[in-house]
Automatic annotation (TrEMBL):
EC number annotated for this UniProt entry: 2.4.2.8
Reactions accelerated catalytically: IMP + diphosphate = hypoxanthine + 5-phospho-alpha-D-ribose 1-diphosphate; GMP + diphosphate = guanine + 5-phospho-alpha-D-ribose 1-diphosphate
UniProt protein name: Hypoxanthine phosphoribosyltransferase
Family annotation (InterPro entries): HGPRT, Hxn_phspho_trans, PRTase-like, PRTase_dom
Amino acid sequence: MKKIKDKEFVPFITAEAIDTRLQEMGTKISVDFKEDNPVILGVLNGAFMFLSDLAKYISIPAEISFIKVSSYQGTSSTGNVKELIGLDAELKGRKVIVIEDIIDTGLSMTHLLKKLEINQPSQISIVTLLFKPEALKHELEIDYVGFEIPNKFVVGYGLDYDGFGRNLPEIYQLK
Ligand SMILES: O=P(O)(O)OC[C@H]1O[C@H](OP(=O)(O)OP(=O)(O)O)[C@H](O)[C@@H]1O
Ligand SMILES: Nc1nc2[nH]cnc2c(=O)[nH]1
């Protein structure tokens, strides 16, 4: 059991299970983008730990950068998504790989894709560590999913509850 602020969380995905899955994902991405010099864009804040660990298993030349969009406060969606900030890589004609920690309703990713498309990349692929199929409200084609999970709030491994819990090396589920 893990108490974060006022809520209790139970262990859900171990650090070992995450590492094993990241090896598989990194290997697949390395094969699929071998010739492409892709631009890998991590979505802050949540994806910082996922991308830093995943990147170690990506063995091909790739540009890595981070961008930021935010829509969540506490444990439920506020529905309003902020602007995209921090995009410094040239995307025109390039293959872009977007790295998210979680796709829940799909609102953030839908919004982000619209913003990225303005920059005319040749392709955008979506990678997410966690995906809640039951929560999805916006149609999305997700190319690489680490774990499909039930529609329950999770923290750890980059994911926060009110800013806390991101540093936990494993993932916990709301009790
Ligand atoms: O599919 P959705 O329902 O839109 O939810 C997913 C989004 O929520 C989280 O970000 P958040 O806005 O909490 O920002 P953070 O990454 O800084 O924690 C997560 O990183 C995704 O971007
Ligand atoms: N921490 C956290 N952020 C989210 N953003 C969307 N869904 C979630 C979730 O389950 N946990």
